[in-house]
Amino acid sequence: MPKQHGKEAEPIRPECIMCFGFLVLILIGALLLSLPAATVTGESIGIGSGLFTATSAVCVTGLVAVDTGTTFSLFGQLVLLSLIQIGGLGFMAFATLVMVAFGKRITLRERILLRESLNTTTLSGIVRLTIWYGLMALAIEGGGALLLAIRFVPEFGWTRGLYYSFWHAVSAFCNAGFDLFGGYASLTAFQQDPLVLLVIAGLIILGGTGFAVISEVLAARMQWGRFSLHAKLALIMTGVLLAVGTLFFALTEWTNPATLGAVKGTENKLLNAFFQSVTMRTAGFNSVDLAALTDGSKLLSALLMLVGANPASTGGGMKTTTVAVLGLAVWTVIRGRDEVTVLGRRLPNGLVQRSLAVIVVTLTVFCTGMLVLTLAEKGSVPFVDLMFEAASAIGTVGVSAAGTPRLTVTSRTVLIPMMFLGRVGPLTLALALANRQGNGKSRLRFPEENVTIG
User: Fold this and answer.
1) How many CB atoms lie within 10 A of CB 335?
2) Rg from Cα positions in the chain
3) In sequence order, which residues have a C-beta less than 8 Å from that of residue 243 and are 6 or more positions away?
4) Pairing between strand 340-342 and 345-347?
5) Structure pTM?
6) CB 89 within 8 A of CB 133
7) 57-112, pLDDT tens digit by residue?
8) Which of 124, 282, 275 is nearest to 202 (CA)?
9) Which helix (H) or strand (E) holds 75?
């Protein structure tokens, strides 16, 4: 009789490995941050707060259970900074850089994982590309740190000033939003300081633009006609969202005495409106009191947080190009056309379907989380603030109008999986759908029949 061979086990899918890697990194970070050595007082913050903070750092969110600047020791702050940097670059990219530094050979399996992590389509030169991205990140963070040092060194002294400059440059470029200024104040003390706000905003925009788009812009020498459709859509969406956000915040908060109304000078008011528009795109810093924003501003902020940054960037959210593709599909239906076209190019139907799936899943998680937060707080926190908090978590932004530490333990527990899903969920879903595209085709086709909609 022929020898029976068992069915070979299927290899673990790249998106599952990425998800597991983020989870392991969070657990390691939680253990380190809950050590007594991680705090100024020498007392543990507890595994619950450690897990919340580690999740927020790895997912580059910025929501905090304890005040970062006054709670953590130098050891705790460096652990937090490491988690932010690894989370921002992506753990596979960071691991590759470490292996290259130690002379380890990168296997084919690792290259495939790296390709999926960087959201590229080819394995050719993937390690060189990763090294280039690492050097680019280091250069941008270093340049931002030098510019921040112009203000921080005179104020805090050489040692602390340089440390603060580099720490906040990494936090801004990785779109994390953590700060060391204490009192949950973020950058409110610098709302009259154009240098600090513009440098931080520039780092946030560069981090949220994405390595691939930045590389393409540099390679094309700023010639618009040489950009790919992806780069064009990403840049257009970024510019539109920044402009709309700035205009809206200026209109709604200009006379609000608790926000822009307290800022002196027209140019400084416009700068702070621009900064809020930038930071709501997954960054997490704030230069005005977010709790005092009007309900209209909080609603717009939630929408900006849900959209997020560009794909393959340090930011989160549904991603600008995802929203753009779905918006173009809707416009195509309104015009009565059969094909989705933009800038002289036709978009494949599979891309439209994946964009719809990512947006629907993200909004489902957002609405579910918002509902659970509402039940957990039992009316003690205004609904619009809980909506703001839920959008901040799923969009991996990190701003809070309700004050995260004041929320119940149940609410903070709910925010942990929301931050995790916000960071790995849309990316993992997009990869899974892309890998399975075309695999579900069947020879059997059922009769077609319409249903009434609308």
Assistant:
1) 7
2) 22
3) none
4) antiparallel
5) 0.90
6) yes
7) 999 898 999 999 999 999 999 999 999 999 888 766 776 676 666 677 777 766 77
8) 275
9) helix 74-89
